[in-house]
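Let us begin with a simple case.
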Amino acid sequence: MKAMILKGIRDLSVDKTPLEPARLPVPAPGRGEILIRVSRCGVCHTELDEIEGRTPPSKLPIVLGHQIVGRVEKAGEDAGRFRPGERVGVAWINSACGRCKFCLQGMENLCDDFSATGRDADGGYAEYTVVREKFAYGIPEVFSDSEAAPLLCAGAIGYRSLWLAGLKDGDSLGLTGFGASGHLVLKMAGYRYPASKVFVFSRTEEERRFARELGAEWAGAIEEEPPEKLHAIIDTTPAWKPVVLALRALEKGGRLVINAIRKEDRDKAESFPGLDYARDLWMEKEIKSVANITRRDVVEFLSLAAEIPIRPEIEEYRLEDANKALLELRERRIRGAKVLKIE
């Protein structure tokens, strides 16, 4: 099969083509697994962190990609949830132990044996992939393959972030950073909380314009003060500065949800403003982090997305152009979500 593989950690400021084309054997599904012929795979910021070693893969070489849509090609022994030809998706959560106290409570995201697609197991930058069938999801018919791909990560993690924000209808919501996940959260919030207003903080005027087009009440730079204090803010940036600025923008008793798999090293942070406890964190403000996603998040979000329905803004690329898509993502040339066409 054709694939784009990462053989080692790369510096993207120097190496603009970190992924190499390769021909690999088609993987065979094991017990409880299904073989998927991949049609689309979304491109995520987390792949940049994997490539540059901030969230290093647990094995090399590896096939990246964790927003996978395709059709079941073959089922392994004891795998019977899906029929050959059925359309399925695979998300960031690739497996968990299923036995620990977290798994037994439906919180597989906190399992010590959590395994991520495209980081710990080969992902979707290839023509085929395998996954345990319990971590595959039926895709609602309302979505095309390209529309469905970003829902499996940007959408599902955005859904979990919005849930953790504890928003009530009429509460004001802030979004710091406005990439693939942010634009889907804005659409979700508009549907679930019609009386709420959404305020967007972003580094570029293009992203701020896009946010206003999608219905944001206000969109400004990261450093700007919003016109009112906010009940909740979801931060999707890899930097520390927006965290402190977001805390300042919160209403008393407000909650900041940090939806980021990692943050920059404090000693390397640019213009990191000091945290003033009385000004920034006092008055019962909260900070909550998002750690991965659960199976339940994916299932519930796909159902909600079909009900709305959410139509992600997408840009499509050939598999062979994966490096171009990643470079544009790094340079913040983004409008919505980037998706690789495998077939």
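The second case is a distinct protein. As before, the sequence precedes its structure tokens.
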Amino acid sequence: MEKQDIVEEFLNHLKHERNYSKNTVLAYHKDLYQFKEFCNYTFGKDSLLKIERKDIRQFVEFLLKHNLNPRSVSRKLSAIRSFYRYCVNMGYIETFPPEGIKNPKIPIKLPDVLSVRQINKILEEWTPESEIEIRNKAIIDLFYSTGVRASELCNITLDDIDFKERSIRIYGKGKKERIVLFGTKTLNNINKYLSTRTDGKKWLFLSRRKRKLSRREVWYIINTTFEKIALKFGVHPHTLRHSFATHLLDNGADLRVIQELLGHSSISTTSIYVNTSFKEIMEKYKKTHPRA
């Protein structure tokens, strides 16, 4: 017997008991219902409790055949594994259908990294005049100084900030807490922005309508500011996060320290920045060594 909707039960478990973020729960919701519809249409199985390993393999093959990015396929597999692990733990099924199914190979894509000169076009050479421009500069400065994610920046409140110690308490994925640091110049830009406000709202950064910023608004701010001031196109919040980590590594920071500042649960996630820095080293070597 399938309960009224095990998928919804599972999603509520993620939200209320595992403290998964709203965005992660929404992604799992989308992935699992797509999988459920595929199984119903392809195999005539109206219950995910009837699914076998071969059905999941066929789903993966279908996604790859239709040119879905391998990283997205891996994410969907992660949702499926997590769902069936929950079903086994709850006693709804005895076997684990995704057993032995591996993620598709994901080509290594080195993250885009800005040069210090490109960042300084904004942080050192630009003098904003309007309240919105002052806010935008403070946002970019904080991104680059701390390496926070867009969703994390949107959720920062004034109470999260220790202005004396120049640190911020961040609530990351899975509501994991960490402390990030920022320098005196960043503090000056934040204080300059806060001096323009009289709204009394708790959020550090507000929209034009004095509401909490959304991730979409932050993406637009970063993208358009770099286009206008630095003539650099395609910059987004994660570009600044990558640049933060890579520049730290280039200047001798320990990988474990960078892992902690970024909020990565695994060092293997952080290690991609080693590849990025090695790429920079190779480019410099080829330009400067006479026999390169």
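The mean pLDDT is 88. The chain is about 55% helix and 5% strand.
Keep these points in mind for the review questions at the end of the chapter.
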